Known about the structure:
- This protein has helices at 33-50, 71-81, 103-111, 126-132, 138-150, 169-182, 199-202, 210-226, 245-251, 278-282, 295-306, 315-322, 326-329, 333-337, 358-367, and strands at residues 9-14, 16-17, 29-30, 56-63, 86-96, 116-122, 156-162, 186-191, 230-233, 236-238, 257-259, 264-267, 270-274, 287-292, 313-314, 342-344, 347-349.
- It is 39% helix and 22% strand.
- The strands form four sheets. It has a nine-stranded mixed sheet with strand order 9-10-8-7-6-5-4-1-11, sandwiched between helices. It has a three-stranded antiparallel sheet with strand order 12-13-14, with no helix packed on it.
Amino acid sequence: MLKKDKVRSAYIHIPFCNNICSYCDFCKLLYNKKIVSNYLEELAKEISLIYQGEELKTIYIGGGTPSALSVEELETLFKILTRLNRSKELEYTIEGNFESTTKEKLLLYKKYGINRLSFGLESISNKNLQFLERTVIKQQVEEVIKKARELGFNNINIDLMYALPTETENDLNIDLDYILFLNVEHISTYSLIIEPHTKLSIKSVKNIDEDLDFKMYNLICEKLKLNNYFHYEISNFSKNGFQSKHNLCYWNNQEYYGFGLGASSYLNNCRINNTKSINKYLEGNFFLNKDFLSEEDKIEYEIMLNLRKNEGINLEKFREKFGRELNSIYNYYSLLKDGFLIEKDNYLFIPEEKWYISNEIIIRIIEGEVDG
Ligand code: SF4
């Protein structure tokens, strides 16, 4: 019998951007004042319809570029979100870019209890920014960080993108040095993947060679660890105590709300996807599809997500949640023997030097189903 936890997290999607980046396959649209106003009205309705009043430990406003909204629009959004019941230790994050984050917006964030800022920087090299069709200059970055610090924000994330066809290892080193200079609490890294229907894919740009991607990944891991960042998830690094609680909710395979265009929820054993059509969303047709997860699906998610973390799967919690031992479902003995998995103190994890091939390891676990 599956044991169920209460929902403790909510994601809110703000799909508006001032500019569309060349690699983007997220659910986004160009900023338009009229649409923003209608969107916020519908968002409020969706929340009223779905939210059951649980006390939340994390709220994450992502995008898109939430900071692309004006101060007035952001205030409307924060007022809507005050209907979410918050725990005292709430982690409340908003994403944005440096170009559109002003002192006024930072003050507003403070007023409404935001305590974590997440910025898409991606690179500081002009050549690579041009390739990504992004614009930011060091002065903007440093001014925003300085203002944020003055206002007391002590939990800041920066996104870094690597494996760009225009990028050299030296460029990556320069980006890493710059982010280290900014001295933020959390760094999320993304290897560029050229997704279908993006501007890059239309131009037939190809992903870089896998060996170089691996080299760049190792460079990031080594450099950040050397500078006291804790590598707690395949692509995420933090200073001590600053892991993203919101993302840990996903990686711990816990349920969460997802509100807004194209958002996904995980509620009552169902993965629910919202529509990506702005017209449908504005007509109040929020939902696209709903997948009910069998116990087997849930177990597979539990493995896939938990093994992304350095601590891996807590085998005792697994037993409590599913009423069975993991090794009674999958035979992963040969992976343990060959060093692809380690079992220690009731945790099962992939050693860090094998994270780059974690997908293959996870597939081998699932293929080793005892009854399969
Ligand atoms: S800012 Fe983010 S969401 Fe907007 S276009 Fe660029 S990558 Fe896409």
